[in-house]
Specification:
By secondary structure, this protein is of the alpha+beta class. Helix content is about 25%, strand content about 25%. The protein has 11 helices and 17 strands. Strands 8, 9, 10, 11, 12, 13, 14, 15 and 16 form a 9-stranded mixed beta sheet that branches. Strands 1, 2, 3, 4, 5, 6, 7 and 17 form an 8-stranded antiparallel beta sheet that branches. The structure holds 2-OXO-4-methylpentanoic acid. 2-OXO-4-methylpentanoic acid binds near residues 264, 358 and 359. 2-OXO-4-methylpentanoic acid (COI) binds near residues 135, 298 and 360. It comes from Ceratopteris richardii. InterPro entries: Aminotrans_IV (IPR001544), Aminotrans_IV_CS (IPR018300), Aminotransferase-like (IPR036038), B_amino_transII (IPR005786), BCAT-like_C (IPR043132), BCAT-like_N (IPR043131), BCAT_family (IPR033939).
């Protein structure tokens, strides 16, 4: 249950509200209605969203509440250029925080004004990297509904990562409810339909103090959000990759297949040096033979050859991307033969199209790949024929523009 005083909300949103302290979690639907003319109108989206998120009828817009649509006025008061959103950090209104002590039980969790976390310098995450994260997106549809994409998949992936890093697992239901609350309370930050999405970052970290190497005695589950547009500066234009010959991202038996924070720190050096040489990112090879494709720093990779689509199979060193999984399922529905297998780096030479997938990236066409001394060129116009078909099929479901035949979206 979220406990947030009206004063905190008022201060946060710069709105004049009587200084009555209340627990939003105990509002009945009567109270919500009673508050409507005054509080809800005054605060527009966020308070109403919070009310919706913390009463227990919530998570869908009720017919008896005012329109949940965020007005253009509210949107333009945010210092954001909605037409040019990249993938940068923006401070939003609220974050979700829950803690779990050595009894292994999560507290009720609460929405707090977005702000710094207090951590001991001895926290497990700071010293030994005991932490994992997720990436998800909420989309605003043309008729102002808010959709999440396959949130249960993220919840399940976080459970397997928590297990690998000896952290308590966040139950699926708790995870999804927390995501919904965080999105609704930050509703005004969800970009207008077609201009981007609200990126959701759930984090699970060892926040308790340790000195010797051991699991932390306390864990914190945090969710924050930020409005985003394209991940790569190229947008939907093709990206340019370089096959990495010296460093590896993951090794068999390691943690490449879970979303640990350390997997991302370790690719920064190669990524930065590739960027300095004019590439968009780095494509990694397997650590045993340096012969098979693994993934790009922040996304999975696919090769198209005629009606066949190949992607490296999951064997513990590659992130089991939810966009990856969705593209495989969509491609099969669209009549492609999808092969999840060892993909030899030399197959890059014959591919008709190459594209990357990820939550942040969505689908990004690859225009060229530097393999040793050879520059392999693919479609440089934008999305190739197959990647375009898959991109349209995926994003139209995510954005609520086509019938969700796969039952992947969750409306909140
Ligand atoms: C995502 O795609 O959501 C990720 O977590 C990758 C990250 C590097 C932005």
């Amino acid at each position: 249950m979220a406990l947030l005083s009206m004063n905190q909300l008022a201060g946060h949103l710069n709105t004049d509200i009587p200084s009555r302290k209340c627990s939003l979690g105990v509002f009945s639907s009567d109270h919500v209605l009673h508050c409507k003319p005054f509080h809800v109108r005054a605060l527009q989206g966020p308070l109403r969203s919070l009310l919706n998120a913390t009463t227990h009828t919530p998570l869908s817009v009720r017919a008896d509440t005012p329109s949940v649509a965020v007005s253009n006025e509210v949107r333009s008061s945010l210092d954001i250029d909605w037409d040019n959103l990249g993938f940068g950090y923006h401070k939003t209104d609220f974050m979700y925080v829950s803690k779990c002590g050595s009894d292994g039980k999560w507290d009720e969790g609460e929405l707090q004004p977005f702000g710094a976390l207090q951590l001991s310098p001895s926290a497990g995450i700071l010293n030994y990297g005991q932490g994992i994260f997720e990436g998800m997106k909420a989309y605003r549809t043309e008729d102002d509904r808010i959709l999440l994409f396959r949130p249960e998949e993220n919840a399940l992936r976080m459970i397997s990562g928590a297990d690998r890093l000896c952290m308590p697992t966040v139950p699926v239901n708790m995870f999804i409810q927390a995501v919904k609350q965080t999105v609704l309370s930050n509703e005004r930050w969800i970009p207008p339909s077609g201009k981007g999405s609200l990126y959701i970052r759930p984090l699970l970290i060892g926040s308790g103090a340790v000195l010797g190497l051991a699991p932390a005695p306390e864990y914190t589950f945090v969710i924050f959000v930020a409005p985003v547009g394209n991940y790569f500066k190229e947008g939907l234009a093709p990206i340019h990759l370089k096959v990495e010959n010296t460093y590896h991202r993951a090794a068999p038996g390691g943690t490449g297949g879970v979303k640990t924070v350390g997997n991302y720190a370790s690719v920064l050096k190669t990524q930065l040096s590739a960027k300095k040489s004019g590439f968009s990112d780095v494509l990694y090879l397997d650590a045993v033979e340096s012969k098979y494709l693994e993934e790009v720093s922040s996304c999975n990779i696919f090769l198209v050859k005629g009606k066949k689509i190949a992607t490296p199979h999951l064997k513990g060193t590659i992130l089991p991307g939810i966009t990856r999984k969705s593209i495989i399922e969509l491609a099969q529905t669209l009549g492609y033969e999808v092969e999840e297998r060892a993909v030899c780096v030399d197959e890059l030479r014959d591919a008709d199209e190459v594209f990357c997938t990820g939550t942040a990236v969505v689908i990004s066409p690859v225009g060229s790949i530097m393999l040793h001394e050879d520059r392999l060129e693919y479609a440089n116009e934008g999305l190739g024929k197959v990647s375009k078909e898959l991109y349209s099929a995926l994003t139209s479901i995510q954005m609520g523009q086509s019938a969700d035949i796969m039952k992947w979206t969750v409306e909140i």
